[in-house]
Amino acid sequence: MEKVTMADVAKAAGVSKSTVSQYLNNRFEYMGEKTKLKIQEAIEELGYQPNFIARSLKQKRTSMVGIIVANITHYFSTEISRAIEDFCHTHDLHAIVCNADDDPEKEKKYIEMLRAKQVDGLIIFPTGQNNDLYESMVRQGYPVVFVDRRVENLEVFSVITDNAESTYKAVQHFIEQGHQNIAFVVQPLKVSTRIDRLAGYKKALVDAGLEVNPNLIIEASISDMKSELERLFSLEGKPTALFAANDRVFLEVGEFLKEKGIKLDNELELAVFDNIPFAHLLDAPISFITQPATEMGKKAAELLFGQINKENNPPEVFVFPSEIL
Amino acid sequence: MEKVTMADVAKAAGVSKSTVSQYLNNRFEYMGEKTKLKIQEAIEELGYQPNFIARSLKQKRTSMVGIIVANITHYFSTEISRAIEDFCHTHDLHAIVCNADDDPEKEKKYIEMLRAKQVDGLIIFPTGQNNDLYESMVRQGYPVVFVDRRVENLEVFSVITDNAESTYKAVQHFIEQGHQNIAFVVQPLKVSTRIDRLAGYKKALVDAGLEVNPNLIIEASISDMKSELERLFSLEGKPTALFAANDRVFLEVGEFLKEKGIKLDNELELAVFDNIPFAHLLDAPISFITQPATEMGKKAAELLFGQINKENNPPEVFVFPSEIL
DNA sequence: CCGATTTAGTAAACCGATTTATCTACACCT
DNA sequence: AGGTGTAGATAAATCGGTTTACTAAATCGG
Fold it and tell me: Is the separation of the CB atoms in A146 and A124 below 8 Å?
């Protein structure tokens, strides 16, 4: 069982493989009613299921697209993936989600694997460490869209957020409220989002005539973050406001504050880049910068779809505004 | 460019396709050193990338597995998916994640699509509404593992949580603390998880000699939930404890409480089935029932892997204990 | 030196569809 | 009658690998 092929259907219906193929692809230009019926019956009877692999081999398109996310447990990634999925679903495409774990090696492996599997295009949250590979894809005209992070010196469709601007606004808001010691906590500056957010922070300070105090800036890996926070909060000029550059950082900060019994509102104000689910249920007065993930995902999918269908538009960078909640 | 085939490599290296194929598959039994080198060079020079689709057609295996989740934005689903992905990654498999949105039609479409794409096996969070389809897969010996939800009358590998027991314990705890009016809020009883959790709730009451008051049980869709909660909290015997059957329900309940200004701890105690990210940062005293998602995902992947490799073990149901935080 | 065995490599069938060029009736027209 | 057109269906090539069976040359034992 389970090996009914088109040839079997053809035999059962007393026609040729070609005719069955035409039938399945709705090419009814010249096809007798009785033939249609016979094929129809044969298919039902045998329980025939077409083999897409065979079709893909000939047609050189798999109707699959790959999504390579930097971190699959990141809520923002799943929102985007879901939006892409939705779009694909209505355009007869399938999405394969892979998790690069922010590891350039893994990213490379996945890119190569997915291309070997002949997926029709790729949506990538780039680690930024595989520029040669990115470039070769672009050069070959392979459909690619980058999401969330910019990659320098590469003409490629990208969908990102106004990282610097929103951070600027959030920090500006802190300043307006009279905060002088505003801390900024970020993971190592390996990707554009972190760099841009830090830049926004610095610019807000400078524009307000405040000095940028390196002691108030933590750039550390997650594992080192707690001890850095320890240092930060034992400073003379302890921060009264803190900007967490993403939700992962917020998690560390939140745990730290809980351990130390530092209360929000009185002792410290908090702003976080990224939305977290259930954030609106918190009573703590934390500002969350929310990116329009669904729209971004949809846009990315559209851009990829355009490339797959050879619309030949020149690459563009789409910047979405984020919202401060 | 971008169409270098094995034949090209063979020509460039002055050998036959077969030899190149052997080389690529590390079948070095009888292969001269010089030949290896020539092939190696030819591959490098031409930038040859093998086409997995062609290989899959012949080998009848794609090294891909499908994951059909009920709801991709559900944190529990992504945790499981990630664990499955990890396992696959170390076993030369690829995972395709699809989102059925708890819609049996979509689920059916995805199952058929993925099978047409010849994926080697499927891990499904079943909607429970496609029993014929499930059964036909099982009958045909197609590798399948069900996750999170039981499906009745079907001999199939499943990985689930002790839904009834953990709910029982949480409710029992409420009772021990002196609560008499314990509410239970759940979405329509279409899947086993919800049914089992409700059963656990009822049993806890009965075992403690309390009566099951239907007025304290809300079984409603998300859109009707707020108004049902309105009703619940205007009852004479208003609840002093509430069990939310999953995180989606908790979201509604949380919003409702916030709107009404009902404070936790004094007026109401809360327990939730499902973990939510950042829950441990909350200062509100809410009990969360956490399922061991990572272990469950790993187990599911192992079970699928076993079936794919024809280990022919009889189907079993694995029940994981959840933890009350 | 001969037959047997090992080493190295290849031709060709195959996987299951799609697609192109072709072929056969038969009707229609002049 | 002969040429043309058209509806309906098909044979065969193709996609890019894998795999089996086979051949040719080198090696070996006695």
Answer: yes
- SS3 label, residue B235: coil
CB A81 within 8 A of CB B72: yes
Please report, to the nearest 10 degrees, the dihedral formed by the alpha carbons of residues B187, B189, B191, B197 taken in order. 80
List the structure tokens of A4: 């009914």
Number of A:B CB contacts under 8 A?
115
Q: Which residue type is seen at A72?
A: I
- Which tokens is A31 given? 């096809």
Residue A227 sits at the vertex; the CA angle it makes with A225 and A233, to the nearest 5 degrees, is 100
Instruction: State the Cα–Cα distance between residues B258 and B265, nearest whole angstrom.
Output: 14
For the record, the structure tokens of B265 come out as 């701890």
Q: How far is the CA of A10 from the C1' of D18 (A)?
A: 26
What is chain B's alpha carbon radius of gyration, rounded to the nearest angstrom?
A: 26
Report CB contact under 8 Å: A79, B73. Answer: yes
Q: Rounded to a whole number, what is the distance in Å from the CA of B210 to chain A's nearest CA?
A: 32
B129: amino acid identity, one letter: Q
Spatial neighbors of B297 by CB under 8 A, at least 6 apart, are: B79, B80, B81, B82, B83, B84, B86, B87, B147
Q: Dihedrals φ, ψ of B161, to 5°?
A: -110, 160
A285: its two tokens = 């007065």
Q: Which two tokens stand for residue B22?
A: 């052997």
For the stretch A80-135, pLDDT in tens is: 999 999 999 899 898 888 888 889 998 998 999 999 999 999 999 999 999 999 99
Dist. CA B272–CA B324, nearest whole Å: 9
List the Cα angle B203/B208/B209 in 5-degree steps: 100
- DSSP SS3 for A1: coil
In a 13 Å sphere around the CA of A12, the CA atoms on its Cβ side amount to: 20
Spatial strand order in the sheet of A144-147: A94-99, A64-69, A121-124, A144-147, A157-161, A317-320
Put simply, the answer to whether A255 touches B82 (Cβ < 8 Å) is no
Judge residue A233's burial from the number of C-beta atoms within 10 Å of its C-beta, 0-12 exposed, 13-18 middle, 19 or more buried: middle
What mean pLDDT comes out for the span A44-69? 94
Cβ within 8 Å of residue A61, ≥6 positions away: A118, A120
pTM listed for this prediction: 0.89
Minimal Cβ distance to B72: which of A82, A96, A258: A82
From the list B239, B196, B191, the residue with the least C-alpha distance to B218 is: B239
Window A45-64, strand D contacts by Cβ < 7 Å: 54, 57-58, 60
The DSSP annotation for A131-191 comes to HHHHHHHHHTT--EEEESS--TT---EEEEE-HHHHHHHHHHHHHHTT---EEEEES-S-S
Using a 10 angstrom Cβ sphere, with 0-12 exposed, 13-18 middle and 19 or more buried, the burial of residue A106 is middle
Angle at B166 between CA B161 and CA B170, to 5 degrees: 155
A98 vs B95: CB contact, 8 Å cut-off?
yes
In window 269-308 of B, residues with CB < 7 A from nucleic chain D are none
| Structure confidence at residue B2 as a pLDDT band (50, 70, 90) | low
Q: What is the DSSP code (8-state) at residue A76?
A: H
The string of pLDDT tens digits covering residues B131-152 is 999 999 999 999 999 999 999 8
Tell me the per-residue pLDDT of B66-121, one tens digit each, with 9 for 90 and over: 999 998 878 899 899 999 999 998 998 988 888 888 899 989 989 999 999 999 99
Alpha helices in chain B, H assignment, sequence order: 6-13, 17-24, 33-46, 52-59, 75-89, 104-116, 131-139, 163-176, 192-207, 222-233, 247-260, 293-308
Give me the amino acid identity at A129.
Answer: Q
